[in-house]
Amino acid sequence: MASLQGYVDHRVLLILQDGRAIVGVMAGFDQKSNVVLSDSKERVYSTDEGVEEIPLGLYLVKGDQIVLIGELDEALDQSVDLSTVRAEPLPPIRY
């Protein structure tokens, strides 16, 4: 949990157990690793179209749903034209 403190006020990418990819600014977290994101967007990947970004705004993600948290390089992320990116959606994680 202490390692999450370094992500507060930084733009992060969360990959969830159901395969969703959520990007936002980490506003906070708690002892259960629940995460609050501000200015968040879900990125929906497709092999036919570019990446669609769905605005979510302020968003709470339960810690037990998070598979991965990573900090985004904002300059690099903004330089990528998401409309040209084609990718298979991530499948849900099964235990």
From TrEMBL:
Provide this UniProt record's keywords sorted from A to Z. Answer: mRNA processing, mRNA splicing, Nucleus, Ribonucleoprotein, RNA-binding, Spliceosome
Name the SUPFAM superfamilies for this protein.
Answer: Sm-like ribonucleoproteins (SSF50182)
Subcellular location, record wording = Nucleus
Cite the Sm domain residue spans from the record: 1-75
Family matches, as CDD domains: LSm8 (cd01727)
- InterPro entries of this UniProt entry? Lsm8 (IPR034103), LSM_dom_sf (IPR010920), PTHR15588 (IPR044642), Sm (IPR047575), Sm_dom_euk/arc (IPR001163)
Q: Which family does it belong to?
A: Belongs to the snRNP Sm proteins family.
Sum up the protein's function in the record's words.
Plays role in pre-mRNA splicing as component of the U4/U6-U5 tri-snRNP complex that is involved in spliceosome assembly, and as component of the precatalytic spliceosome (spliceosome B complex). The heptameric LSM2-8 complex binds specifically to the 3'-terminal U-tract of U6 snRNA.
Cite the record's note on assembly.
Answer: LSm subunits form a heteromer with a doughnut shape.
Q: What is this protein called?
A: LSM2-LSM8 complex subunit LSM8
